[in-house]
Amino acid sequence: MPPQMKLTAITLDCPDPEALAAFYGQATGLEPHPESNGDFAGLNGDDGLFIGFQRVDDYQVPRWPDQTVPQQLHLDFAVDDLDEAEALLLELGAAKPGHQPGGDRWRVLTDPAGHPFCLTTHTIQVPTDDAA
Q1: Which of 41, 71, 78, 125 sits in a 20 to 30 Å window from 56, CA-based?
Q2: SS (H, E, C) the chain
């Protein structure tokens, strides 16, 4: 049996760590990590999850849904109201790509560094061995 692992951190490459940390901090309410600097910034979650942002020279913005520069990863966020959350995030600097594969179930936005992320009113359910 493989060892049990707990996800403790997610780190995103970007051209401006402090700006991207500010965007996600305003969007999520997570607190800035006290040791952030010009090349790295972070946010602390109440549940112990850390989101980091690291400066990468010659950063290339993901081209979603086009794969000329792949998305590399994406984050999913549960929200109470898709329209309200979308409006707030667009005000904070997110963008909304024209391609929206989720219909009424989820929305795809991109953060100021171009990383796609999803908003949904549903949490992801991982099937258990008991699932029929």
Answers
A1: 78
A2: CCCCCCCCEEEEEECCHHHHHHHHHHHHCCEECCCCECCEEEEECCCCCEEEEEECCCCCCCCCCCCCCCCCCCEEEECCCHHHHHHHHHHHCCECCCCCCCCCCEEEEECCCCCEEEEECCCCCCCCCCCC
